Amino acid sequence: MVLSAWDLPPFGERSVDTDNAYVRGRTTVIAPQVSGYVREILVHDYEDVKAGQVLVRIDDRIYRARVEQARANLAATQAALDNAQQAHAARTAGLAGQTAAAASARAQLARAQADMARADDLARDGSISVREQDQTRAALALAQAQLRQALAGTEIGRQDIRTVEVGRGGLEAQVEAARAQLHAAEIDLEHTVIRAPEAGALGEVGIRVGAYVTNGTQLLAIVPPDRWIIANFKEAQTTRVRVGQPVAFTVDALGEASLAGHVERLAPAAGSEFAVLKPDNATGNFVKIPQRIGVRVRIDPGQEQANRLRPGMSVEVRIDTGTAS
């Protein structure tokens, strides 16, 4: 019992502790996706907000005008497409008439050919004069010309329809482009109203009414209620640390209050591996420095004091390594 109370071997390794630990949380930076003058600010510093709550409004008059312009452009291109469809119907009807005319010309040619054959027979036995035979031959030539003209008109009608069809493809593409432009303008208009992406508490609101902001300008930040602990242990202390082991921790801001949690995850590498400037140990003056391994601690639910935790608070953590994971 004495050895256990004083954490002496073999009981001295049942727990590890560190004061290099801090409360962590997510911080969501709110920035506009459009540029403009701030027209209205509907929240205050450190206020609790709900998901979807309106935070800031940007002057939207220019963006409303762009939506109307895009809508008018879409109407114009749609009208042009409707006109092309009507032209296609008219050309189709015209082609039907030209086809009928070609059929009539064929019938006239067949009649003229039959008349010419009879005229030739009658001319050989002297039943008709040469003049009448020439008139029949002229009628045959006229019928042949009329048929060629009708066939040419039919081909022109087909090409007209083809031209309308090709042009309609371009007009359909223009309509889709105009519709996309309208959708983009509507999205920009919607983004003039900045809403909270999730529930949480606001940080300081650093903007003012009338200020000009650009897309990407940081306006404010939301801190969601999620909290956890990151405790940095010396590498030798993590020998028996396992996921799921119970954790007791105290927070400087909460006085002597003790809270509970469990080991959730261990860092995949030492903290020095994540540093921007990594240490260069390939020198003659080497001093071994114990590395720190981050341990993420999940805070157990149902603790009233846990609601007072804020990201960045200093914490002292003790892990019960004598308990199996």
Structure notes:
The chain is of the alpha+beta class. It is built from 3 helices and 14 strands. The chain has 3 domains: 2-25 and 226-320, Elongation Factor Tu (Ef-tu), domain 3, CATH 2.40.30; 26-59 and 192-224, OB fold (Dihydrolipoamide Acetyltransferase, E2P) (Beta Barrel); 61-190, Helix Hairpins. It has helices spanning 2-5, 61-124, 130-190, and strands at 15-24, 28-30, 36-41, 48-49, 54-58, 193-195, 200-202, 212-213, 220-223, 228-234, 246-251, 258-266, 292-299, 314-320. The strands form 3 sheets. The protein has a 6-stranded antiparallel barrel with strand order 1-10-13-12-11-14. Strand 11 and strand 12 form a beta hairpin. Helix 2 runs antiparallel to helix 3 (130-190). The longest helix has 64 residues, at 61-124. The protein starts with a helix and ends in a 5-residue tail after the last strand.
How are the secondary structure elements laid out?
Blueprint: H1 2-5, E1 15-24, E2 28-30, E3 36-41, E4 48-49, E5 54-58, H2 61-124, H3 130-190, E6 193-195, E7 200-202, E8 212-213, E9 220-223, E10 228-234, E11 246-251, E12 258-266, E13 292-299, E14 314-320
Antiparallel strand pairs: 1-10, 1-14, 2-9, 3-5, 3-8, 4-7, 5-6, 7-9, 10-13, 11-12, 11-14, 12-13
